[in-house]
Amino acid sequence: MEFPSEPFKIKVVERLQKTSREERDRLIREAGYNVFRIPAEKIYIDLLTDSGTSAMSDNQWAGLMLGDESYAGSRNFFHFEETVRSIFGFQYVIPTHQGRVAENLLFSVTVKKGDVVPNNIHFDTTRANVEYHGALALDQVIDKGLDPHEIHPFKGNMDLDKLERTIKEYGPERIPLVMLTITNNSGGGQPVSMENIRKTSELVHRYGIPLIFDACRFAENCYFIKEREPGYQNKSILEIARELFSYGDGCTMSAKKDGLVNIGGFLALNNRDWAEKVTNLLILVEGFPTYGGLAGRDLEAIARGLKEVLDEDYLAFRIGQVRYLGEMLKDAGVPILEPVGGHAVYLNAREFVPHIPQEQFPAQALTVALYREAGIRAVEIGSLMFAQKDPETGEVRYPKLELVRLAIPRRVYTTQHMIYVAESIAKIYQKRDEIKGLRIVYEAPYLRHFTAKLEEVD
Ligand code: PLI
Known about the structure:
This protein has helices spanning 21-30, 58-64, 75-88, 99-110, 124-132, 160-170, 194-206, 218-228, 237-246, 272-285, 296-308, 312-331, 349-352, 362-374, 383-386, 415-430; strands spanning 45-46, 92-96, 116-119, 136-139, 178-181, 211-214, 250-254, 265-269, 344-348, 376-377, 379-381, 388-389, 396-397, 403-407, 438-442, 453-456. The chain is of the alpha/beta class.
């Protein structure tokens, strides 16, 4: 297997702090066994997220100095708009300060109580925003996408039969839009094939339903298409992206991922009526339509980032680095979700700590162990994030997968850092029986994993 070396060199460095086992033991207890509550300076390798954590290039930093901070009509907006149109192809480009605002604005004008919004798998903010508007968020990924052992090149694919059954069951009038998340973050960073995108598009359009992409990691998805789907080997990432988006009617985008910036996002649409309504709301909650909650310099950095992320040398390194971490873990016998996705390696917590039952949050327990033993911060994608209580029966519905995501920030960590992570996790795996389950002592009504406090179960 090929793991290309870094197609960049380092111009600026940031000091990392190492902490002692005792200090981390105290910090995690004080944080209520929730790594979101730990000060970042007390983390050695931060794999909490690949969102907003990228290292910008010298070209992007130079772009910041060209920020035009005019309230209206900033030149950076026009560069941003032109760049988004040239890659994504959608007519109306609405900047937002991050992805979830694009979701909120879109659903505010399209979704009403009692509606249904299917997706391959909704990301947590997308699900929460759909539910906040009184609608049902349905996950319709192929069954293979939920099996951590199934090797399939496009495990993020939409199950077209499930989707058609849903459309028939609820009726197209209750489905204001269908979403496709590329790559499918909550299912392991798995890509969606061009064929599946085309067929999903044909299906939903047959029923008059628009298709909206959650495009956060579109370039990584396009790289997988190039690598794995017949007919795309000789196409550029830009050509693949243009074809992919041509099948949809718009997208929400968190530029904090494949925009290679620390803040920013947008909503891009073809429907003029929706765009007008969203723009009016944008002025109310985010800002004037040519800045949408961002500074001019941020728009410039996004425009430059969106061009850089299409570079195949960058993507080959990026996908290769994540894959390398996965291979090292597999070699050490650590259970991971396969194949390795685009932005992260996911540990399979059910198999890592089989002695911890689902109601004691096995993936969160493993996340705590990674911090306590090695100063590594990962994120739980399991019961703490997704288990739901039925409002009528009070019964708790648990997610099928219990994962710990090791998300790799873009252009930030070296191969040696990856080796440290793999060796540390291999050591923890050797003494996995010592890891204890957790119970919740505080939780918020929405997105509880961000602020929950827990304690260890003896
Ligand atoms: O964090 P935002 O609001 O810029 O973007 C929200 C968002 C939407 N969709 C998907 C697929 C995401 O992955 C996503 C954010 N992801 C985060 C923060 C993550 O850690 O994966």
